[in-house]
Amino acid sequence: MNGKKHWWVFLLFGSFLLYLINTKPVNQYIEIVKQTASVNSKQVKEDPLLTEIIGKEQEEFIPPINAKMDRVWKVIPGYNGRKLDVGYTYYLTLQNGVYTPMYKEILPTIQLKDLPPGPIYRGNLKKPMVALMFNVSWGEEWIPDILQILHKKKIKATFFLDGSWVKKNEELARLIADQGHEIGNHGYSHPLMSKITLSRIRQEILKTNEVIQQTTGKKPLLFAPPAGDFNQKVVDVAYQQGMKTILWTVDTIDWKKPDSSVIVHRVLNKIDNGNLVLMHPTEPTSKGLEQMVDGIIAKGLMIGTVSEVLSSNRIN
User: Fold this and answer.
1) For labelling, which of 32, 106, 159, 191 has a CA lying 20 to 30 Å from the CA of 245?
2) How far, rounded to the nearest angstrom, does the alpha carbon of residue 292 sit from its chain's CA centroid?
3) 293, 272, 278, 295: which is closest to 129 by C-alpha?
4) In whole angstroms, what is the distance from residue 141 CA to residue 158 CA?
5) End-to-end Cα, the chain, rounded Å
6) Cα–Cα distance between 156 and 306 in angstroms, integer?
């Protein structure tokens, strides 16, 4: 009886494999593999196209950049390198009739996870992406307008939420999460984290994580200390919870509520690769946000979440 069962299993499995082999995506993949294998065996001198592509391999090589501890900026993420995939490029160029480069990313030897816990103020200086981050413990009346602008511009931001604020504004917190924005932890009661006990530091972070998860279903992996106040104990406690401690590169100082043009100028005058831009839900931020986003994009920078900026993944 057991033998018969095994026979039927093998028959079904074999039939499934036969079906897969005859599907278009699998056939295309097999052709790519065959073409790549043939590239490796060809005599380069007999194929001008292959010679040209191999010549571009070194020319288009970009080495990876290791994550590091910087004297000024502290923890700085790495950035993937890239190399030309000769076989795949050759195959696609033959298929398309024009040079169609395909690349493989090369991971840094030292990545963010390999560094000791420390504060993060920015992404890698070579990554043309920036993040907009909002620290939220008040200003809920301006959040709908901010979300509407981000939606219009198809931008995802990172919102660091105060735990007690989430308790009082559950529907708004869910709206932020439901629109696909990244949710971070901003403590529970907005204390100066370096001035409180170790057990209180832990309580502030854990209690906020708990209320955010219960309300939005999201588990925060980033912690922004209130008022940017921290010490190594704070960083270590966050790290023990699997969280990175996030500060900022560019401060809008919007909590002083200047004219919106002042905020836009502050950002666009300083913005550069890997920057993290700190904001709060204020009226001038709401009024200047669209102009700020347009200006950042005009400078050739992409806008993503904090996690996307800190990732070593290439964007070009």
Assistant:
1) 106
2) 20
3) 272
4) 18
5) 58
6) 10
* 185-231 pLDDT, tens digit each: 999 999 999 999 999 999 999 999 999 999 999 999 999 999 999 99
Cα 120 from Cα 190, distance rounded (Å)? 20
Own/partner contacts of 30-35, CB < 8 Å, gap of 24 or more, are 31/91, 32/87, 32/88, 32/91, 35/87, 35/90, 35/91, 35/94
Residue type, 23: T
> Which residues of 187-301 form beta strands (DSSP E)?
222-223, 244-245, 250-251, 276-279
Cα 79 from chain centre: 12
Helices (H) and strands (E) in the chain, counts: 12, 12
CA distance 123 to 222: 14
CB 274 within 8 A of CB 124: yes
The contacts of residue 116 (CB under 8 Å, 6+ apart) are 69
CA distance 177 to 304: 15
- The dihedrals phi and psi of 246, each to the nearest 5 degrees, come to -110, 130
Distance separating alpha carbons of residues 250 and 272, to the nearest angstrom: 9
| Residues in the chain, overall count | 316
Measured CA distances, 202 to 196, 208, 251 (Å): 10, 10, 27
Q: Residue 67 in contact with residue 76, Cβ under 8 Å? A: yes
Tokens of 4: 């018969």
Q: For the chain, what is the mean pLDDT?
A: 91
203 near 238, Cβ under 8 Å? no
3-state secondary structure of 62: strand
